Amino acid sequence: MALTHLTIQQAVADAVRVRIIAGELEAGTRIDQDALAAEFSVSRMPVREALRQLGAEGFVTIVPHRGAIVTALSPGEVEEIYEIRAALEGVAARHASEELTDEQLDGLRKVLAAMRKEEEDIDRWVQLNSEFHDTINQASGRPRLLELIQRFREQSQPYIRLYVQRLHKTAQARKEHKAIVDALTDRDPDRAEAAVREHLNATGRAVAAFARAGE
Question: Are 135 and 186 in a shared domain?
């Protein structure tokens, strides 16, 4: 089936978004539209529209005479995103505490054990961290809530790498993750929500403080 203009635009947007989330395109990087057009063998028009889409999503900033730049969030913006995540994912954890099966809880424990073994492999640790939070969020059974969570998780994903790679906070994350699993195991919605909120707010404060120190 031939690609339509919209599917080409979406393919370009998806590819660039993945690279930003993975940290391959760092904050402040200018995106070469000609290189993208050549990579996808398309004209510049769907590339421009893909970048406008990413601009609306908050991943890039369109700067006059410079083009599209990977958005560099201020320390305050980083902290705000984590505050929003804390609120949203706290609600998800509250619902998940009543829905997670024993098998899923055992899976969460196995993920935590794997994370401890993979602390030197940043990519693997980040992948496992996503799996941990995704399992809890999906168990909430709230599709509209999940849509909002996904949006803000994607924006914060590059900062997860910063948290692990530069702040060396894996031990603290491990302690906070365990508190979350313990609350979920006890089927305690109040503790589950509080543990998730504490974890994400603490992460946001740590990353924002690191960013402020480098200003």
Answer: yes
